[in-house]
Amino acid sequence: MGTSEILELAFVLFTASVKFAIAVTYMLARNSEYDYFDILIRLIAGGSLGVVVFYYFSNVLNRLIGKLFGKKKKKNIFSKKVRRFINIKNKYGLIGIALLTPVVLSIPVGCFIASRFFYKKKITIIAMLLGVVFWSVSLPLLSYLIDYFNQGSSY
Questions:
Q1: Contact (CB, 8 A) for 42 and 155
Q2: How far apart are CA 30 and CA 24, in angstroms?
Q3: Domain positions in the chain
């Protein structure tokens, strides 16, 4: 494994841990180089790494926010962003957040929301990891099926 391959692997892992959809697009755009299982392993590894790091970092950040701002009794002022997060939480719950996180919300934002609202549930990190696995399996498989059917119809 050469330096360029190591750098590319690091890029894919980092991108999958922060912006999962971009990593999927990058790996599928170069589909001649990767087979399905290479893509699957790299996406699961990068996405899972991101979930673990950002979930536990968010827990620490949320505790710090609670200590700094928890003592004061202020009038609640909700911004559009806060309202959007609360609507997502109320409408979709933990499973919805776990499924939306990799492709819609991004892993850092989804982990922050999950750790903020569902930190007492022991299944939270497992649900987040299952969301990554679901999209890691589904998106490349869907891409390969679309390619397969497009090649079959052109003959």
A1: no
A2: 10
A3: 17-72+88-142
Query: Which candidate, 41, 39, 19, places its Cα nearest to that of 103?
Result: 19
Q: What are phi and psi of 119, to 5 degrees?
A: -65, -25
Q: Residue 9, exposed/middle/buried by CB under 10 A (0-12, 13-18, 19+)? A: middle
Residuewise pLDDT in 10s, the chain (155 residues): 789 889 989 999 999 999 999 999 888 886 567 888 989 999 999 999 999 999 999 888 878 877 777 665 556 667 787 787 778 788 888 999 999 899 988 999 999 889 888 888 889 999 999 999 999 999 999 988 888 888 865 54
Q: Does residue 61 contact residue 112 with C-beta atoms inside 8 Å?
A: yes
Q: Cβ–Cβ contacts within 10 Å for residue 6, how many?
A: 10
Measured between alpha carbons, how far apart are the two ends of the chain, in Å? 38
Token pair 């997502």 in the structure block, residue:
88
Tokens 């909700």 belong to 78
Residue 87 neighbours by CB under 8 Å, 6+ apart: none
